[in-house]
Every structure is written in structure tokens, then in C-alpha cells.
Design goal:
single chain, alpha+beta, Beta Polymerase, domain 2, Poly(a)-polymerase, middle domain, 9-stranded mixed beta sheet, two-stranded antiparallel ribbon, 13 helices, 46% helix, globular, disordered N terminus
Length: 463
């Protein structure tokens, strides 16, 4: 009985809503005219669809139904956004006269009064040439050359400062912690590899942690506490035969695992309290401040010509894996994040080298758009690179003249991955690169990109 009452109440609400909409649309033509009524009808239909889906019971266990609902929502929202603006009404001296469209001829036998032009005769004779419509290809190339080019002087200065700080860090670690076998620090990041840098403002410094592979082994991500194949654990082995102290890294063991948190905390204390940054900054002609509140190992460098952010990453290379001391947020410790950045850059450049392709240029444009857009910024970096790598397996024409086609195809692929909520890693299909995105974020990204498929110029407008 309760279920019946609920359904009956819902039908009555639907009928009431339908009656209001019918009455509104019936009188819209009288009030708004034909064009206005058409706009209102389209918008009303789309809104009614959204309301119907919001009030109708959902198939919680049917992923295909959820995917279809999400796609229809994006389509309806795009329909509302794309409704045409009503035409401006023509001005009439006498409202009793009929309104004629510009293309409609006057009634035969009826003389039309000559119109008075207020502009001077000289201005009337000047004919302005119509603006040239640029193709998407031309807009993309223009966007690339005008907004994505990093000034060479700034890039050179930023790298010079980063190398100087690398040298000072290396000297400090060798004198302060001679027992810890750190490798040679090196620079990394988009500014060096050229896939997504928009400005000379950020550099990664990689600090190799050299392990004796006889004393350490890797635990796969699926077997870790977070059940995420992209996070690994590094386990201390054979403690019965090689007790604690045999490895210099045993001081960072937590529960028989090399703790990324413990290592980061020790390095953070060194960066904040032990290193004389004013003296190093004076030597390099800049001001250097460690970021105290950040969980990352970050330095802010201020120079007269450039402001630079430097992030330090301890890194372990073992069993063909590159693991960063970048654990997930929360109370989970000891985890190491597998990084594919080096493999991503190498693979994209290898593919472009084979066919003289425009993958790198396409990626820089896409990364530039996503980084500067508040809705899409979480798609920049690895997700875009993996989409391009997946697409390269099926779309072989990456010549520069096909840049616009590939650009639109990447947008279509992104929408498809967002619909399912899964973007598999190119190098390990068990890893979902969308696993940390919220449902609301996926919905907003999907709606925006769905619109951009039909009108890619939306993404090239200044934010």
C-alpha cells in the first residue's frame, strides 16, 4: 500500500509538472514570439529530462544504466547551454505595422518610405571586408606558438638555479649523512622534457636511494593495504641472517618495511632546520625558503627574473620499477608510488621520432588547456599522455597537418574514459588513473569535454 501511494503521488507530481509546462509553452508564442518559444521549448524539454531522471528510481546494480544516465545528462546539459539566443526585435515607429524579416519583400503595390541614414555619406561608401574564419588547425597552431612557448632566457635561468641547488644539496647530504648511500641528484620534470611546461616555474629534483637488492624485495601493489597496483612496499628480507644494521637504510624501517614517510620526515627536518639557505641563496643571487607546512619536500626560490618551485623526490629504482617516496594522503605509511613519467616521455618521443608526428605538440596544447582550466586541471600530466599513447595504437596518422583531427579524437577518447570512470595505464592495465577522482569531478569534466567535442574552440578561449 505504501509503495502504491508513493507511485501515485509521483504520478500526480508528474501530471502537475506537465500541466504547468504545457500552459507555459502554449502562451510562450504570444509573449516571446516564435524564436523565443522555440528556445524555451528546448530548454524546458532538457530540464524536464533532468528532473525525470533525478526523480526516477536508479538501477544501482547496473553499470550500463548508470553510464547511459551520465551520458544523457551531459547531452541534456549541452542542449541547455547550446540553445540559440533569440533574435533582436526590429525597431518600429508604429507598433500596428506588421514586422517584416529582412529577406521578406514588401507587399506588391505598397510603397515603402525611404529610410533615413544618420551616418555620413563617406562612411556609407566604406565597405569593411568580412573577418577571416580560422580553421581549428590554425587556431591550435596559433595557440601553441603564442601561449605555450617558454622564454628561453627564463628556462635557462631556472635550470641554472636548480642545478646550483642540486649541487649544494648533494654536498650537504654527503657531509651530514655520509653513511647513507644516496645517489647523484638529477633534475626532471616538464621544463626539461618539453611535454607540458607553460612557464619556467617548477622543477623536480630526484634523490636516488641506493638499496642492496639482496636485503630488500618489492611487495606488489595488489598485496598492499590500499589494494592499489600503483603503490608498492619495500620489504626488508632475511633479518634472521642479516639483522638490523646490516643495511644503512634500516633506520627507516617501520614493521619490516622501508617507510617513505619516515624518510621524508627526516629529509624535511634537514631542509627546514639544518641547511643554511640564506647563504646558499646569496651565493646563487636569490632568496630560498623551504616550505614548512607542505608534506612534500619543497623549496621556493625567488630571483629578480624568475620565481621557481623545486620539489625533492626520494626515488628507488629496483626490478625495473621507478618508485617515489610519495605516499597517498591519509594514515597509510610505508607506501611507494610507481612513476611512469620517464617511460611516458621516452615512449612519446620514440613514436614521434618514427613518423615525425605531432604527439608532443598535441600534448603541450592539451596540458596547457587543462592546467589553466579550474575544471580540467586534474587531467593534466600523466592521464593525457596515456590517452595519447592508447590512441597511437589505433590512429597512425600523427602528421602535423592532422593535428586538429587528433586533438578532437583525444577529446572523444577522454569523454569515453570519463563515462566509465576508468583510464587504464598504458604500461599496466590494472592501474586506473581516474581512481582518485570524485564522481562530481568526473561529471563536470565529462560535461565540459562533451560540449568541446562539438565546439573545440571553447577550450582555446582565455580563462
Amino acid at each position: 500500500t505504501m509503495e502504491f501511494t508513493r507511485r501515485r503521488g509521483k504520478r500526480q507530481e508528474d501530471y502537475g509538472l506537465g500541466s504547468v509546462l504545457d500552459l507555459l509553452l502554449a502562451n510562450a508564442r504570444l509573449v516571446l514570439g516564435v524564436t523565443g518559444a522555440a528556445v524555451l521549448a528546448i530548454a524546458t524539454l532538457a530540464v524536464k529530462r533532468l528532473i525525470d531522471r533525478a526523480t526516477s528510481p536508479r538501477d544501482e546494480g547496473d553499470p550500463k544504466a548508470e553510464q547511459k544516465t551520465l551520458e544523457e545528462s551531459w547531452q541534456d546539459l549541452a542542449l541547455i547551454k547550446a540553445t540559440p539566443k533569440p533574435l533582436k526585435k526590429q525597431r518600429r515607429e508604429d507598433l500596428s505595422e506588421p514586422l517584416l524579416s529582412p529577406a521578406q519583400p514588401p507587399t506588391p503595390g505598397e510603397a515603402r518610405e525611404p529610410r533615413v541614414c544618420s551616418a555620413p555619406p563617406e562612411a556609407a561608401r566604406v565597405e569593411s571586408s568580412p573577418p577571416r574564419c580560422l580553421t581549428l588547425q590554425e587556431k591550435l597552431l596559433s595557440h601553441y606558438s603564442s601561449q605555450l612557448a617558454v622564454p628561453e632566457a627564463q628556462a635557462s635561468l631556472a635550470l641554472q638555479l636548480a642545478k646550483g641547488i642540486c649541487t649544494q644539496l648533494q654536498n650537504f647530504l654527503q657531509s651530514k649523512c655520509p653513511e647513507l648511500p644516496f645517489g647523484r641528484l638529477f633534475l626532471s620534470g616538464p621544463l626539461l622534457d618539453g611535454l607540458s611546461a607553460l612557464a619556467a616555474d617548477h622543477v623536480h629534483v630526484m634523490l636516488p636511494v641506493v638499496l642492496n637488492t639482496a636485503l630488500w624485495s618489492l611487495i606488489p601493489g595488489e598485496d598492499t593495504v590500499v589494494r592499489n597496483p600503483q603503490y608498492w612496499m619495500i620489504k626488508r628480507t632475511d633479518l634472521e641472517y642479516f639483522p638490523r644494521g646490516c643495511s644503512p637504510w634500516d633506520r627507516f624501517i617501520v614493521g619490516r618495511y622501508l617507510s617513505s614517510n619516515a624518510l621524508n620526515e627526516t629529509l624535511h627536518k634537514m631542509l627546514v632546520a639544518s641547511i643554511n639557505w640564506p647563504a646558499i641563496g646569496s651565493l646563487l643571487g636569490s632568496i630560498i625558503h623551504p616550505v614548512v607546512a607542505s608534506q612534500e619536500l619543497k623549496l621556493e626560490v625567488k630571483h629578480d627574473q624568475v620565481n621557481l618551485s623545486i620539489t625533492l623526490f626520494p626515488v628507488v629504482e629496483m626490478e625495473d620499477k621507478v618508485l617515489l617516496a610519495a605516499p597517498p594522503e591519509g594514515l597509510v605509511e610505508n607506501l611507494w608510488l610507481e612513476s611512469f613519467y620517464r617511460a611516458e616521455v621516452s615512449k612519446v618521443k620514440e613514436l614521434d621520432g618514427r613518423d615525425s608526428g605531432a604527439r608532443q605538440r598535441c600534448l603541450r596544447i592539451l596540458n596547457g588547456i587543462c592546467k589553466s582550466h579550474p575544471t580540467l586541471h586534474k587531467l593534466s600530466g600523466s592521464p593525457l599522455t596515456h590517452v595519447v599513447l592508447h590512441l597511437s595504437a589505433t590512429s597512425l596518422d600523427w602528421a602535423e597537418e592532422s593535428l586538429a583531427d587528433r586533438f578532437q579524437q583525444v577529446l572523444e577518447e577522454l569523454v569515453g574514459y570519463l563515462e566509465t570512470g576508468v583510464l587504464p595505464s598504458y604500461f599496466n592495465h590494472k592501474i586506473n588513473l581516474f581512481c582518485e577522482l570524485l564522481e562530481e569531478e568526473i561529471d563536470e569534466m565529462g560535461f565540459l569535454l562533451y560540449r568541446a567535442i562539438c565546439e573545440p574552440e571553447l577550450l582555446l578561449k582565455e580563462k
